[in-house]
Amino acid sequence: MRFDLSIIFDNWQLFANGLLTTLLIAVIALPLAFVIAIPIAFMKLSRIWPLRALAIVYIEAFRNAPFLIVLYVIFYALPTLHIRLPALVVGTGVLCLYASSYLAEIIRGAFLAVPKGQLEAARAVGMSRLQGIVQIVAPQMLSGLIPPSTNMGIILIKETSVLALISVAELTYQGMSVQAATFAAFEVFLVVGGLYWLLCATLSAIATSAEKRSARSIAGARRASVADSFLSLEPRGRK
Amino acid sequence: MDFDPMAMIAALPQIGQASLTNLWIAVVATAIALVIATGITVLRALRIRVITTVLDIVVSAVRGTPILIQIFLFYYGLPTLGLDIPPLIAGFCAVAFNSSMFVSELLRGGLTGMDRGPIEAAVALALPRRVIWSQVVLPQLYLRVLPALVGEITMVVKATVLLSSITVVEALRTAQQLASANFRFLEMMLAAGILLALINLAIAFIGAVIEGRLAVRRG
């Protein structure tokens, strides 16, 4: 056997198309998953038990069943409901729901990590609960949200490969079709894997720099401690 | 076609039997992954620059690529290298290989938070390196990561359904075979999904019990 990369160069357009589709799916699914995850997270935090139960069932179903099977269930369920959508749309949608169940838990964790007194203080100065959450708690959640969300983004990028099995023409699907035509499995899947690796590494590099920036802005905010400036002291922990 | 709950229930025994394949693949693969991951952890601790760099690259590459691609590499790729292996073995190796990298990261994380005292005591007693690892470090480390390791088994159970794409007969493949005979795709997929989710819930429950026991032990 010889390692023949010319197969990759001959079919570079297929790989480029696949890579773009994969990127497109991830870029659409991740923000959308966040939007879905926020109400679910707050449903699980809610004091009303039917809402909480609903959120728990949603989260546990998506987290415990294999993604491929959830994908197939929804893929086959839609036609029985007389809904016909292209595989790309179904796949992106299911991926989005799947990611939202993990993100809901991440958001809930970040919310609980903010000290309770913050929301209570916001209520005490006359803010509504919603105002307190949006203006006081949410900004403080951000730093706790970035690392696990990045992790989720990487899981999501990798999970897009499963959509190949319902024939969404993303990177893995293109790799499978080139492999079927050329039998150069080793070259094809090494290159496809390398491209996924590149995507994941890029995302993680972006997140690390964002994390550093947010850490710096928190360090900057600490300067203005009310008690310290009242007593005209130097900020604590800074000499 | 309307949803037929009876067809789903009728398929449960057969798919249930097949889902045991997923379970044993996951349990055995995670056990093997623990052995490989222990090797990686010990090799890392030797602080040999070349080995550490190579390990870092391999772990990062495996964690940064979809497991489906790794399964394809083992199943389609190895025969082109002259290694002809059946789908089950290829799939099993891919899953165990993938999991070992994730477990090695678990061990790495467990190592950083570990009590330094016993290790320092062992070093002070000039115990041989091998004894320190096998008698002092690893027993504590395994206890620490046990709950996370149980969680890893659920991840591997979920990964095993991907083996259906390389013709390994497990829960999903069985469901697909049944569906191609009775055309009840939705019902068969739902049956497989419910069964595997129940298996994972059971594993997660065991993990929670273990975690509780360990917390009591620590006091």
Sequence of secondary-structure elements of chain B: HHHHHHHH
Average pLDDT level of chain A? 88
- Roughly how much helix do the residues of chain A carry, as a percent range? over 70%
Terminal CA distance of chain B reads 58 Å
Low-pLDDT runs of 5+ residues of chain A are none
Structural class of chain B: mainly alpha
In the CATH hierarchy, the third-tier topology of the domain at 13-171 in chain A is known as MetI-like fold
CATH homologous superfamily grouping of chain B? MetI-like
* Number of distinct beta strands of chain B: 0
Shape of chain B: flat
Number of DSSP-assigned strands of chain A: 0
- Residues in helix, % of chain B: over 70%
CATH superfamily of the domain at 13-171 in chain A: MetI-like
CATH class placement of chain B: Mainly Alpha
Oligomeric state of the chains in view = heterodimer
Number of domains of chain B: 1
The global form of chain A is flat
Structural class of chain A: mainly alpha
Task: Please provide a written account of the structure.
The complex is a heterodimer of chains A (239) and B (219). Chain A has 239 residues and is mainly α. Chain A has a domain at 13-171: MetI-like (MetI-like fold), CATH 1.10.3720.10. Chain A is built from ten helices and no strands. Chain A has helices at residues 6-10, 12-45, 49-64, 67-80, 87-113, 116-124, 129-159, 171-182, 185-221, 226-230. In chain A, helix 4 crosses helix 5 (87-113) and helix 6 (116-124) packs antiparallel against helix 7. The radius of gyration of chain A is 23 Å and the shape is flat. The model of chain A has no long low-confidence stretch (mean pLDDT 88). Chain B has one domain: MetI-like (MetI-like fold, Orthogonal Bundle), CATH 1.10.3720. The model of chain B has no long low-confidence stretch (mean pLDDT 92). Chain B has 219 residues and is mostly helical. Chain B is flat. The longest helix of chain B is centred in the first third of the chain and has 41 residues, at 5-45. Chain A binds chain B through residues 1, 60-61, 64-70, 72-73, 76-77, 80, 154, 158-162, 164-165, 172, 175-176, 179, 183-186, 189-190, 192-194, 196-197, 200-201, and chain B through 1-3, 60-61, 63-70, 72-73, 76-77, 79-82, 154, 157-162, 164-165, 172, 185-186, 189-190, 192-194, 196-197, 200-201, 204.
